[in-house]
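Crash report, auto-generated. Payload:
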Amino acid sequence: MRDCPEEKLVLLVNSRLSGLAKWQTERHLKACPRCQRSMTEITTLSQSLLALTTDAPRLALAQRIVHPQSQQSQSVASPRKLYPLLAPLLGMALGLLLTLSLKTDSGAQAITVGATTGLVLGSLVGLFLWLLKRVRFTVILPLLTSVLGLLSVPLWIQPRPSTTATIELAHPQNASALLDHDTVGTLIQFLEPPQTGRTFSSSRYTSWSLPPGQEITHFTLTGYGAYKDDPTQQIQRLQEWITTLQETPLLAKAGWELRVIEPPHEAVLKPSRNQVLYDCCMAFLVGLIFGLAILLLLWLGNVLPGGRVGCIVAGTLVGFLPSLSPQLRFSARSGFRPTVSATASFRITALPNQPTLNSTQRVHLLFCLTQQGARRIQDYTDKETVTLTLESSDVAQLRQELEKISKSKLMQVLGQRIEQVGTIQTKTTTTRPWNVTTFWANQLQSTFWGLLAGLFMAFTRRR
Amino acid sequence: MRKTSPAPDPFACLFERFGGEILGLLIRLTHGDRAEAEDLTQETFVAAFQGQRGYSGRVPLRAWLAGIAVRRLRDRQRRPRPKQVVLITEPPAPEATERDVTQRVILEQALAQLPDSQQAAILLVLVRGLTYKEAASVLGEPEGTIKWRVSEASKKLRALLSEMENEK
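Recovered output after restart:
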């Protein structure tokens, strides 16, 4: 008979076959009388040999063997048992050392923070070592990385000193709906002076006391970071922002009434509860994924063929794959990156009996009318014409965006007319994204990470 | 008050269950040197008990213990020391019948006639339940060699057993 699996019969006798191999062998065994005979012989032989090679230990041997537990009980206070307890202390000492070496100005507070952080991290390591002896490693590792992720949340969610102001914009009953809440929000953002370092939020509400159809929107303008050590300058910037909003005719023209509720003042920017919750969930998830990724690498290290060399080669190859993407191959050949830009000029003129906008106002207006990310005004020295360039990788989208501008009904509300001058000019330019060294560093970055993963797999391999 | 019986000692249970098998295996592998086999059995069980956390449960306990025992034996064989060979034929159990005794003696002789390498291979794979791969790792030989040795030894011993069956 073909393919009589005698080797597998030996394993089947000792229940060392599993899965598909077991099923196949058992199926074959049912149909093959020769293998059935072999199986009986092997089983008899196995039992006979087991009986033959089993010797009753003499009493002296049983008494001679020193019970390992009695050895353990003698070493209750061995240093090995104390490792988990030492870890928090060691962590605290390291935290203290680190804080002292940083020479911060905040003195005692910094030392307390350093010591506490060290103590917490050390306790975690101790807990990890303790759990490692009791719970499976595959459970502990993702749990630990998730907890570490959670613990890192306070590092980036912190109350920040800032300056803030609140303005109120009331929408009158019969005002045009064209300059709606969202457009006003965009307008406010684009009228922001440079270097405000702002964060921007708005809340809209209607009240029973307001006439029907009227609504009031509160905008909170907050600045932080740009003038960290000089809140006065920050307050001045916010004030400039509010003044610009008050002076622009665009809001008044669309019927929005602006009122300052809270003038710019110093405040502490606290993260909202939802933000904290979201960040905690994300940190936990990222930590969990990181832990699982390590487990995956540990597992792959043991199953990849070719031993340590196989692991390193596989890791490097997988890391190298992203550099074969078409965009990177193009960059690899030329060292340049292509960009598509579309340029159009617009003439903005006032309708009869309507105020003429100045050049800055025209620019702001154009910015309000397009939401394209990469944009720049090329020329607005002419009193009426503004040239706008948008950049992207999709020409069709750029054309659509530019055509939308001249069709906007917002201009009628503001008493202005906008018309496109000439045609839309598109151009593909290549820009040098990086110098040669940086280029290759970027190119090889993923390969390096792959190599690192390969080395990790290779050196954590069991055999 | 009801007296509760003390919990069974896991080490004693382990030794009671597998002590004889491991000792028997080691006696064969040390060519009948019972003293050395006993030493090795002691080392094996202490090592097994101390390293019990490393036991994943995927391998049968018998195979795991046999692996430890053979590794200990190999470690000891690497150390240079004068080898004392003591041939011992264990007296059969009193309740064994005459036919059992005869069969046992014949099988014992047949096993003794096998080359050491085949003896070790068949005892580990067929009797102690190691896979070919595990036995190859323990004995430091290629997996294919182990398969061949088990097959050869098995053929010889099975032929002998079937002869004995026919004579019955």
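Post-recovery validation: The interface with chain B takes residues 6-7, 10-11, 13-16, 41-42, 44-46, 48-58, 61-62, 64-69, 133, 463 of chain A (CB under 8 Å).
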